[in-house]
Amino acid sequence: MNTDPPLTNPAWSDKFTKPDESALLDVYGATDRMYFDGVRAMLAEYEWLEEELCWNGLPWQWSFAYRNEDTPPTEGPAGDAAPAWAYLVPDPNAPIFAFQLARGMVEQLPTKRVGKYARECISSGRVVGQRRWVTMPLAAKSQVAEVIDLIKRKHHFELVGEPVARVTAAQREKASPAVS
Known about the structure:
alpha+beta, 36% helix
């Protein structure tokens, strides 16, 4: 069991000072940075997503929110920001990918074709209303591949209204050139 205290990054946790990107990401070693950059590169391929560094409260603090025209960065009815399509959280201990899945997608997801790590993260996600909030810490190359697979499945489901039957290994590799 690891007894080391969790890593901290003052730039990540200071709500009142917006950090620059390097202050958030320089705490990562080469491997964690590669995982973070790989998922970020995949999200950048979706031209309809806009990246925004914003304060998201605890536990995500300063994170990269990915919004589209359906999730504008405006105030929600309770005075909070409308949820983004996805979040890439530069947690100093390990990068985290977080997103919400509609109940219909969770029910229709072809679980035998989704990786074990993704299934575990989805099943342990918090249900809020008709959505399940999924958080996926990125600590291995295989986990990054599963995140990329879920990004594609979520995007396809929201466009077409049905889950992707199969994402091939070649499609995953093509989508993640930054992760090696």
